[in-house]
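Much of what follows relies on a compact textual record of a protein's fold. A record is reproduced here so that you can trace the correspondence yourselves:

. . .
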Amino acid sequence: MKKEFLNLLNGSTELLEDITKDGGGETGRLQYNGREIKIVHGVPVFFESDINDEEQEKTNKTFSAKWNVFMRENSQSTYDYSMNFVLKRLVPLGIRTEEEFKKFLSEKEMIMDAGSGMGWMSEYMAQNTDGTVISVEIGDGVFAAHEKCKKYSNCHVIKADLMNLPFADNSFDYIHSDGVLHHTPNTKLAMKALYDKVRPGGVFWFYIYKEMNPVKHFCDDYIRQQFTKLSPEEALEQCRAITELGRALSKIDATITLERPIDVLNIPSGTFDLQRFVYYNFIKCFWNEQIGYDVSNIVNFDWYHPNNAQQQTEEEVRGWMKEYGIEDYDIYVANPNGMNVVIRKK
């Protein structure tokens, strides 16, 4: 932990104990608003795992397991795939190229990567802005994020709950939350908690799951009900068959054409790649040759093992905006699985 981080907290703080190494605190304690906060492997831990929400605790363990695998499988091809994926999701911000994203970040003074995993995006942000980057993660991937980001003087990594962040409202120019809010106990309340941290004139971007068609919804729910009973290791093993289905369908290299939509199942007309057609309408059997078997398997695990994995309709999200008096926003339905939302705070 960098000592400058204390100046960013909302409330009274005092460093009670700090053992420094290479200029950063590796272990120690700080006092925040009368509460003692441990510093573990350089990371201030504002979130402790003894919470009452059993489903959220299981979800946290899922993502800790996920990031442990990603640490083993981290590669340039995975990074390239992830960056291209993010850029596609940033269309509502008017961003279509990496250079445009870099320029966007360079203009921000306070940035939050909300649900940062093992910190690859936090590191990218720190490299492309002179402003401050706060990397927030609730799972054990936070320690990998710290290792990535500790060399950047403008980046601070914390373990914390998005619903209970130690920062003042109206603090951030940009909050970035990619595929995280639907894994909290309440997507709507998580959105509001982060929106409150955005300062007037700032931007909040997030990606969440979209309500699926009835067949996909049934398959998702059924598989998730079975997999959430398993340990992360057991679920990863069970996901292999689903991943191999995706690979097999991909190798067929065929398309399917529906001349008319199947309205009762909310399946549109059109021509589709066979693997994508099954993936979007029946069972998520992700496969991508670029990132390979193990990371493709983790993508499927990410979908099926978390207890908390809410899906929303576009109408629901618009209802949230109306309820909270948010007028300047855009919703972009990127694919049948999810939607990107950008809010500009007045």
